[in-house]
Amino acid sequence: MINYNRFCLDNGLRILVHEDRSSPLVAMNILYDVGSKDEDPDKTGLAHLFEHLMFGGSLNIPEYDKSLQMVGGENNAFTNNDFTNYYLTIPSHNIETGFWLESDRMLELEFSRKNLDIQKNVVIEEFNQRYLNQPYGDTILKLRPLAYEVHPYRWPTIGMDISHIENTDLDQIRTFFFSHYAPNNAIIAFSGNITPDLALSLSRKWFGPIEKRSLKPREIPVEPEQKAERILTVEKEVPATAIYKVWHIGSRISPDFYTLDLITDLLAGGESGRFYTELVREKKLFSEINAYLTSDIDPGLIFVQGKLMKGIDIQQAEEGITRVIRGVQNGNGIKDEMEKVKNKFESSTVFANTSILNKAINLSFFELLGNPELINSEVEEYRKVNQEMVIEATRKNFVASNCSTLYYKSIREEK
After folding, report:
1. Is the CATH number 2.30.30.240 carried by domain 230-414?
2. Could you give the residue range(s) of every CATH 3.30.830.10 domain in the chain?
3. Parallel, antiparallel, or unpaired: how do β-strands 5-8 and 14-19 relate?
4. Does the predicted TM-score (pTM) go above 0.85?
5. Percent helix, strand and coil across the chain, each rounded to 5?
6. Architecture of domain 5-206
7. CA-based torsion, 355, 360, 363, 364: positive or negative
8. Each residue's pLDDT tens digit, 293-342
9. CB–CB of 189/17 below 8 Å?
10. Distance between the two ends of the chain, CA-based, in angstroms?
């Protein structure tokens, strides 16, 4: 059981504290409720750009990393569709340095042309290296707009087009910051060698004076039900032909989330998963194949993606995927496999929660979902899934009319 205290400052900042005296460190996680879904379609990539800008200096502190490293701290951050997350670990006796650093960049960044140009170049280089200059890198740029018509999940976190970042100016940056980065749009969670009283006292001291801000209203269009299969074929100079398939599912808090999570583990739980056993080891249709769900807060996707063995017909490979999924739909022999998957989920969750950083990140995220107690009940929710629930969810979601498919054909194989 992970015990925690929850507080809320007058300015709307939510605070969660888990005291763990076994560690000499404190993990401090700050989640801002802003992700790529909060961007305008003609100005995408700003949430991710801000992840970089937040380390470029704040109003009173020119060098975030240097100040933290001098007191033995480490930090990092990530951005996704739904939120932006910053975290640090620091010796407990130096924890106030973390409050000083994080409160100053919540107050205001150093909005300089120099810093903006530096971070824009970093993101542009990342876009080129990850999405344009490596095999299959542009897959997500093609697959998301195939699956989504109106919801902002139709572009990846890094943005729809690199020109959006190239054309970003300081006015857009200031507007985005003060519309989203605010105490009343943030959650801070602590785990480690810190008492709830000290965390609350220092939060009041450093974050309390920051006033609430007027947040940009979240007006996200609802994605209409997909009623017909969608297919896109591309041909490129890649090592092997690949198949990418996605199906729409419910939100992160939908009743069947844990059922679908278990289904992807049945399909692709390492070398014991059905995809690997049947399609890689036995039939030798794929060299690798995987399945996962996106865990988005709004209705998300299940992904199945695999690279074909040389000489395998793409239709034959796709029929293999369908056959394995149909086996789950029919409930063929899944009872014993489900128990193994549940045991694996429980052990990995318990192990992950031995980390103070993981606990701080999870507390923040579950608070965003509206239920921080999920940090203690996730295993129970996963274990509640039974065979009938798996069969029903598979039949409901894995249908052709709900599927978008990208055939990524290798020109190299055709020569």
Report:
1. no
2. 5-206, 230-414
3. antiparallel
4. yes
5. 45, 20, 35
6. 2-Layer Sandwich (3.30)
7. negative
8. 999 999 999 999 999 999 999 999 999 999 999 999 998 888 889 999 99
9. yes
10. 59
